[in-house]
Design a protein that fits this description.
Low-confidence stretches of chain A: none
Structural class of chain A: alpha+beta
CATH superfamily of chain B: Formate dehydrogenase/DMSO reductase domain
Mean pLDDT of chain B: 92
Strand content of chain B: under 5%
Helix content of chain A: 25-40%
Distance between the termini of chain B: 31 Å
Oligomer: heterodimer
Structural class of chain B: mainly alpha
Strand order of the largest sheet of chain A: 8-1-10-9
CATH topology of the largest domain in chain A: Alpha-Beta Plaits
Radius of gyration of chain A: 23 Å
Number of helices of chain B: 14
Number of domains of chain A: 2
Helix content of chain B: 55-70%
């Protein structure tokens, strides 16, 4: 019967699952050239964000958003070291993490947000009705709704697609392709994780004691949202890069929230029943 | 990008996360929802609360209670009608509102809410029509049609769906990463209590207006006061659990509408007014009951609106986001 329904409604079988694809962003190699930001905008035909200046650093993008799917951070650190000021500049190309347990996907009421055959999280633009629930659900502040009165895909939610169209043709996503230092590496998630562990070992040997991986299966940050398919090698603690220590998955506390809500409703019903009953005597 | 992260967003700058993050930029995105959402939460809450109060009176009350409280079905029907249009207006693509119903996904409170509203609206309208048939408001073939509504079944199903409608809104806000909404797990209970107090207040208001018997009016006021007390209790728990995270709500721009409007006028004042409305000889001062009920309903709107708007400010509070995600 279900087969008949599918035939009638023209429902296609989803493509067979492939090996999970993702990004390993090694911030120790990033030089802050923003080629990834530009390549992403160009390939995905995303409009410019205007010429606002933050006045904080060379990062005038500020954050990821509906029309910005790669964002390069410039973190300037100055530390007193004896009589000298020690300066260091951390750069990081931020992107959608394509979480294994994605808050946006779970929040989506229309089924517009799906997991693709490559294990990535993707917004189907013809389904999204712009309810906006995915926007505050994401613990990383990635996905956003394009303004209703804007020129670009008005009113629907947008984020990195991991260049789904390019993956379909066995091509590397635009940002990774354009990265001149291999800071953004694209490939099978499992293989990238091996590579990341090796790289971390190398850096530790060289004395980068604060280097760490963010988004690996064994990491604290995978407790709720699972391993990140786009994960990072960081040179400082996650908060320095505005990354949450343990990103929260709303589903984990939902039952408790409904429980309190139901308790209030039942309590009210009991009190009201007693009060109305009292009138009968 | 309109440049919101470019100004320093967290006014305090203190807290355990102060200065640790990236230029005090927000960690999560600011919710895109506008005034339609708190208005819908309020109206849906009034509708659900009135329907539930009316149904409890039908089941447990005296003949007087039943007759008077049945007007609650009119309130529920009137309040629920604008809800779907408000919810649709807030969508980025209102023409695709029906995509909410292309799947059933109770894991998503937004999907559950859309289905609940879809189920509750016809039930509230049908039960109101049935009441209108009883009171002679509907005549002729319409009355015959209204008589066909299975009342007890509609009351039971409508009460369950109504409670879900009243209860899911706070859970929906809580199922995000906005610190003010997510830190405490009691927001669903707060909104439920607010829905029940404002819904029962609407029934009290109508009863006082229509000259209900003293005893019935007194019972309705007692039910409403119980809901207000519950609301105060769970709101206190919510504020305590939220701690510093609640600052955008309890201090600054929203402090006055929250403390004076939602807490003062919405819960404390009605409790006092209902207390003084009942005189020693057992008579009820209708003007005071009316005032109390109006205050409860207005306070409920203030509560939804302040928590909703302060949540937007909270989403830009970097320190609160770090606190929420602390391991």
């Amino acid at each position: 019967m279900i087969d008949g329904y599918k035939r009638m409604m023209n429902i296609e079988e989803p493509p067979p699952a492939k090996r999970a694809k993702g990004f390993f962003t090694d911030t120790s190699l990033c030089i802050g050239c923003k080629a990834c930001e530009v390549a992403c905008k160009q390939w995905n035909q995303l409009p410019a964000d205007g010429f606002a200046i933050t006045g904080n650093s060379y990062d005038n993008t500020g954050h990821l958003g509906a029309t910005t799917w790669r964002h390069v951070q410039f973190i300037e650190q100055a530390k007193a070291n004896g009589s000298r000021q020690e300066q260091r500049w951390l750069m990081m190309s931020d992107v959608c993490k394509h979480c294994a347990n994605a808050a946006c996907l779970e929040a989506c009421p229309t089924g517009a947000l799906v997991r693709t055959e490559f294990g990535t999280v993707y917004v189907q633009q013809d389904i999204c009705n712009g309810c906006g629930f995915c926007v505050p659900a994401c613990p990383f502040g990635v996905i956003d709704r394009a303004p209703k009165d804007g020129q670009f895909e008005a009113g629907t939610a947008h984020k990195c697609t991991l260049c789904y169209d390019r993956l379909k043709d066995d091509m590397t996503p635009a940002c990774a392709k354009s990265c001149p230092t291999a800071s953004i590496q694209f490939g099978d998630v499992e293989e990238l994780q091996q590579r990341a562990r090796r790289r971390l070992g190398e850096l530790k040997e060289r004395g980068e004691s604060k280097a760490r991986l963010y988004g690996m299966p064994e990491g604290k940050e995978a407790q709720e949202v699972g391993p990140l398919h786009a994960f990072f090698l960081l040179l400082d603690e996650p908060q320095t890069y505005n990354l949450p220590e343990v990103p929260r998955l709303p589903r984990k506390t939902m039952a408790e929230r409904y429980g309190w809500s139901a308790a209030v409703g039942i309590g009210f019903a009991m009190v009201a029943a007693l009060v109305f009953r009292g009138g009968r005597r | 990008m309109t440049g919101d992260p470019r100004k320093s967003s967290s006014p305090s700058g203190g807290g355990q996360g102060g200065g640790r993050g990236y230029y005090n930029y927000p960690v999560v995105r600011r919710p895109v929802w506008t005034w339609e959402v708190p208005a819908y939460f309020w109206l849906g809450g009034v509708a659900a609360g009135a329907y539930f109060t009316a149904s409890l009176a039908q089941t447990f009350g005296t003949g007087d209670d039943r007759g008077v409280a049945a007007d609650g079905y009119y309130i529920a029907a009137g309040a629920i009608v604008p809800c779907a249009p408000l919810l649709i207006a807030d969508l980025g693509r209102p023409d695709r509102f029906h995509h909410m119903l292309r799947i059933f996904k109770p894991l998503s409170p937004m999907n559950l809410g859309a289905w609940t509203l879809t189920g509750f609206t016809p039930l509230a309208l049908a039960r109101a029509a049935s009441h209108a048939g009883d009171t002679g408001l509907l005549r002729g073939p319409l009355r015959t049609l209204a008589r066909l509504v299975p009342r007890r079944l509609t009351e039971l199903a409508g009460s369950l769906l109504g409670l879900t409608l009243a209860g899911y809104s706070g859970v929906l806000l809580g199922a995000t990463n906005v610190p003010l909404w997510a830190k405490s797990k009691l927001l669903g209970g707060v909104f439920m209590a607010s829905a029940l107090s404002s819904g029962s207040a609407a029934v009290t208001l109508q009863a006082a207006r229509r000259g209900a018997p003293e005893a019935t009016l007194h019972r309705l006021a007692t039910v409403e006061s119980a809901a207000s007390l519950g609301e105060l209790a769970i709101l206190t728990g919510y504020l305590v659990q939220s701690g510093k995270t609640a600052r955008p709500l309890t201090t600054g721009r929203f402090a006055a509408p929250f403390w004076l409007g939602a807490v003062g006028a919405g819960s404390l004042l009605p409790l006092l007014l209902h207390r003084f409305a009942r005189r020693r000889d057992g008579r009820v001062l209708r003007s005071l009951s009316t005032a109390a009920a109006v205050c409860t309903m207005a306070g409920s709107l203030a509560l939804r609106w302040t928590i909703f708007e302060a949540g937007k400010a909270s989403s830009e509070d970097q320190a609160a986001s770090f606190e929420l995600s602390r391991g």
